[in-house]
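Researcher: Please translate sequence to C-alpha cells.
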Amino acid sequence: MRAENVYLTIRGTFAFCGYTAWVTSAIYHLDVAGLDALQMVLIGTVLELSVFVFEIPTGVVADFKSRRLSVLLGYGVIGAGFVMWSLWPSFLPILLAQVVWGAGYTLTSGAQDAWLADEVGEERMTAVLLRGTQVDQALSFAGIFASVLLATIRPDLAIRVAGLVLLALALFLWRYMPETGFRPAGEDDHRTWRKMRDTLARGITAGRRSPLLRVVLLLNLFAGLASEGIDRLWEMHLLTNFDLPRLSGWNNPMLLGAVHGVAMLITLIAAEGLRRRAAGLDHRGTVALLVAFQVVVIGGMLAFALAGGVALAVTAFVVVTVARRLASPIFQGWINRGLDPRARATVLSTVNQMDAFGQVAGGPALGHLATRYGLRVAMVTVAVLLAPTVGLYGVAASRPVGGATDDDRPGRRS
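Model: Translation complete:
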C-alpha cells in the first residue's frame, strides 16, 4: 500500500483502540480493580517512566535496523499490554501492563514519524500529519461509542477488544507496510554494537549542538510537566467541583464522552482549514502559529480552573483540547525539518523522552497539589507551568531550523 494510506490506517486504528480502552478505563480501575486515587496517579507515572526508560534504545533500533519493523512490533506490544491490562484487575498486574504497552509505544513514537518522513518527504509531511489528525478524530468518535457499549456489558471488555484490534493491526502492517526510503545508519559498518553506539551518539550530539533542538527539548519538558494535570485530573475536576446536568438515561461516562465528542468534531472541522494553510508556512510562521495555540491553552486552563459554572468549565476544556490536538501535528512537522535522516528516529525519541521525563516528575506533584490544596489549585499550576513555553517559542523563532548546529549559524565559519 501507499505509505500515506498505511499511515492513515495506523492513526485511525490506534485512535479507535485508544478511545475504546481509555474512555471507560476509570470505571474499570475504580469499580473492578478497586484502585484509590494515589494508585490511579501511579499508573500514569509508571507508564511514562517506562516510556522514559525505553525511548532512546528503541529509537536507536529504529535507525539501525528498520523503522517498519519497529512500528509493527510496537503496535503488537501495545496490543499485548492492553490485553494484560484487562485480564488481571488488580494494582500490580495493571502496573506491569503499563510497562509493557509503554515499551511498545516507544517502538512507534520516533520510528513512526521518521518512517513517514522517509516515505513521503519532509515537504509533504505536515499535510499528511494533519490529514492523519482528521482521521484520528473521526475514528475516535467510533471508539467512544464502542467503549460505552462494551463497558456496559463488562468494564474490562472495552480494553480487551482494543488490545486484540491492535494485535490485528500489527499483522496488517507486517503484510502491507512499505519501506522504500529507509537507509540503515552506518550500513557499511558490519559490527552491530558499534553501529548502534554511533547512531545513539549522533542523536545525542544533534540535540546538544543544535540551538533549536535544545529549545525543543525544553518545550517538551514543560509540556510534560503540565500534561498529566490536564489528562488525568480534568474529569475529577469536572465531576467534583461542578453539578453536571442530568439527562434522562445518561450517566457520567456518557456525559464525559459527549465532551470528548464535541471536542473531536470541532477539531475535525478545524483541521481541514488548518491543513491547507499550515503547509505553506515557513519557520517563523509555524512558530507564530504554535505560540497562538499555546496562549489559547494557557488561557483555557485558567478559565477551566476558575470557572464558577459548568457551562464555562466545559467550554474552556473543549477549547483547550481542540488547541492541543491541532497544535500537535504542526509541532511534529516543525521539529522534523532539516533533521539528519540517519539519526532522525533517535533525535525524535530524545525529544519524546523529555516529555516522558516531565510527566514522571510533574504527575505525582500535581496529584499531591490536587489532594492537599484542591483541584482548582492544580489546574492553575498547569497554566503556570505552560507559561514559560511562550518565551521559549520566541527564542525558537530566532534559531536555525531543524538540525542546524551552532557552527552553522552566520558568523561562526572562518
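Researcher: Any highlights?
Model: Residues 3-178+203-406 form a domain with the Growth Hormone; Chain: A; fold (CATH 1.20.1250.20).
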